[in-house]
Amino acid sequence: MPTTTLAGLLSSSSIRVNPDPPSPSTPIADSISTIHAFLSKWDPHTSLSSGFLTAASHLHSYLLHLSTSSANSSHRELVRTNSLLQSAMRRLDQELKHNLLAITDAQSTADQISTVRAIVETMLSTGYGEECITTYQSIRRSAVTSQLKQLGFDISTNLSRKLFKVSWEALDHQTKLWIDAASRAVCRVFYSERQLSDSIFGASPEPIRDSVFASVVGDIATTFFSFPETVSMRARNSPERLFSILDMHEKITNLIPDIEVLFGCEPAAMVLSKVTSAITNLIDAARMSLNEFEKAVRKAKPHSSPGGGILSLSRYVMNYLVCLFDYEASLHMILGSMPQELNTSSFDIQISDDWYGSPVSVRIAWLIHVLLQKLESMAESYRDVALSYLFLVNNLQYVVKKVKSSSLKDSLGEEWVVAQEKKVRRYMEGHVRSAWANVSAALPVKEEEHVERVREFEMLFQKALKERENWVIVDERMREEVRQLVEGMVVPAYRGWYQVYRRTTEVRFTPEFIRSRILVLYEDPESPSGLNSSSSSSVSGSGSNSSNSAKLLCRLGCYMPQEGDLSVRHQEELNETQKGELLLQCHSRDDVAQQGEVSLRLQIEDVDSSVSE
């Protein structure tokens, strides 16, 4: 509140309290002497009496009377009376400070509030309003600042000019403190201060009460709400700060009704203006951070994961998105008015106008789509086509599991999940076909070739075991299904050949050995009993898994030979089949690491360490 405006209000005659005029039967000089004697005997260490306040009011009334008198003696009495009144006001000002320091908030004792209110009304009525407001403002501003500091927000260290110079680590810490303090600052500190000023200045008109409140907390509240605005300006190009931005946006928007009640008066308009500006900047920063996040995914350095396992980028993005969806309400406000310039025609499913359809759902689906495109591009870094497929299997399966185990499933919908699961299935089929069909096809077709071809089979089989011993299939169910498919492609055909030629040809491996090696290859790397626990299962069994595997083998271009059936597909046919197997879209591989990307990944990837996959 500008001082000139408050001064103008204080000088208005409408707020003055005019005491009863002195009795005509009592000389003015005698009355002054009586009041002087009363003031001289007053002890500031004792409780303030109403008689002292009444004497001060009468003194002011006498002063006004003398100022209009034309008597020659009036000038001398006027000077004396004015000096006495100033002395009385100095003592009242000291008493005001003493009592204000004893008040914590509007919940202080009624006697404390009443005493301060009586002092304030006396000082206002005797023309010392500015002095009264200055003292009140000084004491209460200090009290409010102290209360905010106790909440963790130090005004002196959170000025905008200082925040642009502190380190990110320090700013992150201060942001957390602000978020924790915001609700209590508005609903406890500022609200209590409003109650206190209304109680103490209750006899004054509403404009005075509004102006006093604004003069105490206006600048402080403006600095407090400048904090999220300053942080948003620094963090708008930093995806790892998006969650802090959303936390502040959520906090401040939830407090809007209380803020409007407290600062809706004209003298406090600057606070509302700052809050509006802060929200606007937070929205802009959130949008820019989302765009930067997408760019970071697109520009992530292409690299492969050992054994085709889950890429750190996949964990980073999916954990980021799962955490992001917790802010759905804020994101809806942020993205609702934002043009969705997305090429949704490239999605795996067609998005209709009523598709689960909030802007948040569309944006999440788009960011996952960007990740999947990046994974397909990264798959090309593998020289082995089978390993490339395995990489896609592991990473897309991880994406699907993260969606299904989180609230993202409700957002993206069952149709999206089904579409991605079908894609995982196709990748898995491609992996099995690329990895093992050539081994199966090495078995002899013609009797005169059986010696050379069986040696070739043995060589290819051993080579496959050696090359793939460090390959990873993360999902246990899928690992078992791949094992059954591989066993179905290799073991029955080998068993049929073995039973015919084992007596006439030197054979190194028995069908049981072939099967046991496949079991070991696909056992759970963390389970020491994988071979034993899996040895009882067989693709040639009569269960539903066997039936499903047989159907899938036919889809793979293979079939399960019956005992004694030596016919298999020729290698030339396999080569033709493999042509065009892996048609992956190629994207830019600019080796540009966004600032903070690594730290963001380390922070967000930790989510997986505490959540069972």
TrEMBL record:
Residues 1-26, 525-545 are annotated as: Disordered. SUPFAM superfamilies: Cullin repeat-like (SSF74788). Residues 177-517 form the Exocyst complex subunit Exo70 C-terminal domain. One of its GO terms (biological process) is exocytosis. The keyword Protein transport applies. GO terms for cellular component: exocyst. InterPro entries: Cullin_repeat-like_dom_sf, Exo70, Exo70_C. Keywords: Exocytosis, Protein transport, Transport. GO terms for molecular function: phosphatidylinositol-4,5-bisphosphate binding. Residues 1-14, 527-545 have a biased composition (Low complexity). It comes from the Eukaryota. Component of the exocyst complex. Belongs to the EXO70 family. This is Exocyst subunit Exo70 family protein.
